[in-house]
Structures are given as structure tokens and as C-alpha cells.
Design goal:
The protein is α/β, with parallel strands linked by helices. It is built from 14 helices and 22 strands. The strands form five sheets. Strands 1, 2, 3, 4, 5, 6 and 17 form a seven-stranded mixed β-sheet that branches. It has a five-stranded parallel β-sheet with strand order 8-15-9-10-11. A hairpin with a 4-residue loop joins β5 and β6. It binds flavin-adenine dinucleotide and 1,4-dihydronicotinamide adenine dinucleotide. 1,4-dihydronicotinamide adenine dinucleotide binds next to α6 and β18. It catalyses: N(6)-[(R)-dihydrolipoyl]-L-lysyl-[protein] + NAD(+) = N(6)-[(R)-lipoyl]-L-lysyl-[protein] + NADH + H(+).
Length: 475
């Protein structure tokens, strides 16, 4: 017996589950279909982010940072750790339990908000009437009719040509988060966000890590000063990053992987690794949607083609998150999901792409919002900058973590904040102040005149804003 809904969401990642909750909050009958399975074959909503992305990676980053700190960082505080050992099994079990808490939390939220959840794969089918017909295959077999459909099917890791992931020796993010022993030599192709975060985890736990990056510069999307500081800090930690490489033949043996490559100078090199992570970007996931059959258009790169408000080529079919253009970030997916639910309800949902923060959870953390100095220069904007090092911040000294700085970029005439770049302790949290400020189109003077608690890391944000006008007080 077909079921009718106002809104059917396909995909239960951060884009889809949040869209479903918001649609239900707005009084629409809503269903969410997600196919992710836990190890027992049961539902595991939350998508890439919850299952093999944001959440488990941050759990392992935290655990591995504790391990590294216990090894050396506590001695300064007068805390002596006599013997230190790693129980990787327990560390991974902790990560899994955090994932499960998040899966269960989403199922609870669905119940609370009266979202009907279906476990299985949803696909479009030609319908005889105005409603969209969605078939569910998998644990649940159902046919749904929907006035509106939101596609939030996310993304999948991009494999290196002719090097499929086996998740034993050649790992995607899934395998990289579940290694049951610390490899002696870990190779990583791609010094992007995953390469740096996962490289940090396994280096802290004892692996010798080499990252091979095709581009001649590290973190090209970040402000150049931040990227330079990051490169310096990673090198100090022993995270070896080779830039400007060209990967040649890759041979997968019984227990190792050999990579032939040309280094930045064009010299032939060979490296043998126990495990290889391939993190060279992600691809939109439209497999199994039956998009072609119903005329749902994809763009030339395989993303679902949408307009600025996430409308697809089909009437009342919307798409959000990693499966459409724009940054592949969980919070971008969520914002689009909420905005679409509100548009369906006749409201004016909107997403400001200029104020989406970026965070890389390495140590030091890296976070930014808005334009880099390279961008404002290229755009010929007259600008001023102000920077403040954590070395001059009392709270950072008390923490024992004085790496990095905060940097403001402001319009020279209006003083409007154009970008804020942070590398250092708690950058992931500090960036929110800059996001709020930019959303309200604040000037650097506005931040400089706001009282910040003392002693706090956030004082470095205020001081960097003061520095735009060359009147930092503590540096
Ligand atoms: P997804 O999370 O990919 O969810 C899509 C869901 O749809 C999946 O559950 C999938 O199984 C399901 N699905 C697909 N097709 C169908 C179908 N036909 N029927 C039913 N279900 C279907 N972003 C951040 O902002 N911060 C981070 O710290 C961060 N860390 C990351 C770490 C790693 C290792 C990785 C890989 C990614 C990370 N990301 C991070 C990116 C983030 O995970 C994605 O941007 C986010 O998950 C996108 O959300 P989404 O809802 O668009 O898609
Ligand atoms: P990425 O786009 O961040 O980095 C890929 C890197 O691989 C780039 O530096 C690229 O130049 C390099 N590369 C591509 N082809 C190569 C080749 N043939 N040889 C060597 N290097 C090559 O992609 P990544 O790390 O796979 O992550 C995917 C996405 O997941 C990110 O773009 C991000 O949106 C999201 N993510 C976000 C996180 C966060 O917000 N903290 C954490 C992890 C992932």
C-alpha cells in the first residue's frame, strides 16, 4: 500500500536528516530514507559524517592527541607519566560507541519530530500522477509518493586510477579510521583535509607517515601565511609532506604497497608502505537514484545540477549537501537542508556561502572564514591586516599551547571584516566569533571594542582586530 508524504528525503546524512527534522517542525508529513548499515545490518543514520567522517575522525584525533600529550606534554606541568601504552582496540571501541550514540540520537530525533524513517535505498520511478514516486529497496520494501523530494545522497571517496580501495592495504577514509594495528610506514596520497587529519592520528600513535601531494603548495585554499605556519609545525612533528609529486606506478603486494613517483624536482623516487590512504577528494553519490530515468539532470562533474536555491531540473525535487556544488562540509549540507525545508514551506530559507567556516582539526587547529589575503589582492581590494600571536596570550601560555596566530583582513576604507584566519589552540571554536561578526557585516573596530573575557584565547581575536588599526595592547 503506497504511502503519501509532503516531503521525502533520500539520504540521512547531515544534509538529509536535518532537512527532514526541519520539514517536520514546519508541519509537513515527512519521511527520510537512508541505507547506511551498522555492523549488525541495522540502520545507522548520520551518513558519512557520523559513520566514517567528522565524528569518528574527531574521536580518534582526540584520543591520539591525549596519547601524544601523555607521552611528553605533561612533564612541563610536573605530571610524570611513568609508563605509557596504547590499547588501540579500546580506542577504536570508544570511537565506535560515539558513532553509535550519534546514530541512536538521530533515530530518537526522528521519533521526537515525527519523521518516518525507512531503512533502505530510495530511487525515483516514473509516476502516473503529479506526485513523485520513490521506491525503497533493502531492509524495508515500500513505495512512497511525495509532493516534494529532497535528495541528500552525499559523496563517496575518489579512488586513484586503477587502484581500487580494498580497505586492507589501500584505504579510503573508512579503512583509515579502523586500522587494527598502527602501521610502521603509512603512505598517504593527497595532503588535503583527510590526509592531514588521518596522517596526524596515525603519526601520534607511532606510525612513520609520508604524505605525497601533487600540488606545489600546501593547503592552497588557506591563507598563505597560515599554510606556511602549518607546514612548519607539521614538519616539526615529523609529518613528512612531499609537495609537487607525480605519482607513477603503484603496486599492491601481499603486505605492502610500492609507489613510484617523481618528486618536486622531477627525480624518480620509490617508497614502500605497510598501508596506503588515498585521500584525493570525493565524488558526488548519485548511484542507484535512477536519476536518468526520470530526467534528473547532473552537471558535467556528476553533481546533481541545482540553482542557487537547491532546485533541481525536476519540479519540486531539491538537492543539498555533498551531492551538489559547493564545499563538501557537514555544516554547509545542514544549512542547505534547513533552507530547502523552509522554502518548501513557503518561507525564505537562505545560506550565506561567504560565511561558511573551514576547520582542519590538526594540531595546531586551522580555521578560517571569508577571503584570504591572496584573494583580496587578486580582487584588487584595498585592505588592511592585523595579526596577533598566541605566544602573547596569557591563556595560551597557561595551556602550554602558544603555537600560531589570529589574522584579520579588513576593507581599508569601510573596515568591514573580509576574512579571519586562525592557526592555533581551539581555532575551531574561536572562528565562530568571526563568522557571527561577518554575518552581521561587522568591522574590525566592532570586535576591537567588544569586551572579551580574561584570560581567554578569544582575547587573541580581539587583539588581532585591534592590530588592524595598529593598536594591539599586548604585542
Ligand atoms: P552524507 O553524509 O554522505 O550522507 C548521505 C547519506 O545518504 C548516506 O548515509 C548514504 O548511505 C545515504 N544514501 C545515498 N544514496 C542513497 C539512496 N539512494 N537511498 C538511501 N540512502 C542513500 N565535514 C565537516 O564539516 N567537518 C568535519 O570535521 C568533517 N570531517 C570529515 C572527515 C572525513 C574522514 C570525511 C570523509 C568527511 C568529513 N567531512 C567533514 C565532510 C562531511 O562528512 C560531509 O560534508 C557530509 O557528510 C555531507 O553530508 P550529506 O548529508 O550531504 O551526505
Ligand atoms: P581534499 O580536496 O581536501 O584534498 C585532496 C588533496 O589531494 C588535494 O590537496 C589534491 O591536490 C591532492 N591530490 C589530488 N590528486 C592527487 C594525485 N593524483 N596525487 C597526489 N595528490 C593529489 O580531499 P580529501 O582530503 O579527500 O577530503 C574530501 C573532502 O572531505 C574535503 O574536501 C572536505 O570537504 C571534506 N573533509 C572535511 C574535513 C573538515 O572539515 N575538517 C575533514 C575531512 C574531510
Amino acid at each position: 500500500m503506497p504511502k503519501n508524504f509532503d516531503v521525502v528525503v533520500i539520504g540521512g546524512g547531515p544534509g538529509g536528516y536535518v532537512a527532514a527534522i526541519r520539514a517536520a517542525q514546519l508541519g509537513m508529513s515527512t519521511a527520510c530514507i537512508d541505507e547506511w548499515k551498522n555492523e549488525k545490518g541495522g540502520p545507522a543514520p548520520g551518513g558519512t559524517c557520523t559513520n566514517v567522517g567528522c565524528i569518528p575522525s574527531k574521536a580518534l584525533l582526540q584520543s591520539s592527541e591525549h596519547f601524544e600529550h601523555a607521552g611528553h606534554a605533561f612533564a612541563d606541568h610536573g605530571i610524570e607519566v611513568k609508563s605509557l601504552s596504547l590499547n588501540l582496540k579500546k580506542m577504536l571501541a570508544r570511537k565506535e560507541s560515539i558513532v553509535k550514540q550519534n546514530n541512536d540520537g538521530i533515530l530518537y530525533l526522528f521519533k521526537k519530530n515525527k519523521v518516518t524513517f525507512f531503512h533502505g535505498r530510495g530511487s525515483f520511478h516514473k509516476s502516473g500522477n503529479d506526485a513523485h514516486e520513490i521506491h525503497i529497496a533493502g531492509a524495508t520494501e515500500e513505495i512512497l509518493f511525495a509532493k516534494h523530494v529532497i535528495v541528500a545522497t552525499g559523496s563517496v571517496p575518489r579512488a586513484f586510477p586503477d587502484l581500487p580501495f580494498d580497505e586492507k592495504l589501500v584505504l579510503s577514509n573508512t579503512g583509515a579510521l579502523a586500522l587494527n594495528e598502527v602501521p610502521k610506514k603509512l603512505g598517504i596520497i593527497g595532503a588535503g583535509v583527510i590526509g592531514l587529519e588521518m596522517g596526524s592520528v596515525w603519526r601520534r600513535l607511532g606510525a612513520e607517515v609520508k604524505i605525497l601531494e601533487a600540488l606545489p603548495t600546501l593547503l592552497g585554499a588557506a591563507d598563505a601565511q597560515v599554510a606556511a605556519e602549518a607546514g612548519k609545525q607539521f614538519a616539526k612533528q615529523g609529518l613528512e609532506i612531499e609537495l609537487g609529486v607525480k605519482i607513477g606506478a603503484v603496486t599492491v603486494g601481499k603486505s605492502d604497497v610500492t609507489i613510484n613517483y617523481a618528486d618536486g624536482k622531477g627525480t624518480a623516487q620509490k617508497a614502500v608502505f605497510d598501508r596506503l590512504i588515498v585521500s584525493i577528494g570525493r565524488l558526488p553519490n548519485t548511484e542507484g537514484l535512477n536519476a536518468q530515468d526520470v530526467g534528473l539532470k547532473l552537471d558535467e562533474r556528476g553533481f546533481i545540477a541545482v540553482d542557487g536555491e537547491c532546485r533541481t531540473s525536476l519540479p519540486n525535487v531539491w538537492a543539498v549537501g555533498d551531492v551538489v556544488r559547493g564545499p563538501m562540509l557537514a555544516h554547509k549540507a545542514e544549512e542547505e537542508g534547513v533552507a530547502v525545508a523552509e522554502r518548501i514551506a513557503g518561507q525564505h530559507g537562505h545560506v550565506n556561502f561567504n560565511t561558511i567556516p573551514w576547520v582542519i582539526y590538526t594540531s595546531p587547529e586551522i580555521a578560517w572564514v571569508g577571503k584570504t589575503e591572496q584573494q583580496v589582492k587578486d580582487e584588487k581590494i584595498d585592505y588592511r591586516t592585523g595579526s596577533f600571536p598566541f605566544l602573547a596570550n596569557g591563556r595560551a601560555r597557561a595551556l602550554g599551547d602558544t603555537t600560531g596566530f589570529v589574522k584579520f583582513i579588513a576593507d581599508a576604507k569601510s573596515d568591514e571584516i573580509l576574512g579571519v584566519h586562525i592557526i592555533g589552540p581551539s581555532a575551531s571554536e574561536l572562528i565562530s566569533e568571526a563568522v557571527v561578526a561577518m554575518e552581521f557585516r561587522a568591522s574590525s573596530e566592532d570586535i576591537a571594542r567588544i569586551c572579551h573575557a580574561h584570560p581567554s584565547l578569544s582575547e587573541a581575536v580581539k587583539e588581532a582586530a585591534l592590530a588592524v588599526d595598529k593598536r594591539a595592547l599586548n604585542f
